């Protein structure tokens, strides 16, 4: 089974890129800000699965079946 990760505060996908290059699969990503979401979409072909972390349900996280979570530090005030 391919290991899977969830990327919280994904930004432009730096963690995602590293994990994908290491052979992992992204089970879902979350990013609120519009500009990083557009960059992420240009880089990976789709925007992050979730926009606001507050709207992600526990069942969505459980159903993603991720082996690891990665997170970028939120980098700006909104």
Radius of gyration: 12 Å
Q: Would you list the SSEs in sequence order as H and E?
A: EHEHHE
Give the terminus-to-terminus CA distance. 38 Å
Class from helix and strand fractions: alpha/beta
Strand order of the largest sheet: 2-1-3
Helical content (DSSP H or I, runs of 4+)? 25-40%
| Proportion in β-strands | 15-25%
Q: Which ranges are low-confidence, i.e. pLDDT below 50, for 5 or more consecutive residues? A: none
Number of helices: 3
Quick synopsis:
This protein is an alpha/beta fold and 78 residues long. 33% of the residues lie in helices and 18% in strands. The protein has a 3-stranded parallel sheet, covered by helices on one side.
Characterise the protein shown here.
- There is one protein chain.
- The chain is α/β, with parallel strands linked by helices and 78 residues long.
- Helices cover 33% and strands 18% of the residues.
- It is built from 3 helices and 3 strands, in the order βαβααβ.
- The chain has a 3-stranded parallel β-sheet with strand order 2-1-3, with helices on one face.
- The longest helix is centred in the middle third of the chain and has 11 residues, at 34-44.
- The radius of gyration is 12 Å and the shape is globular.
- The termini are far apart.
SSE blueprint and pairings:
Layout lengths: L3 E5 L5 H8 L3 E5 L4 H11 L13 H7 L3 E4 L7
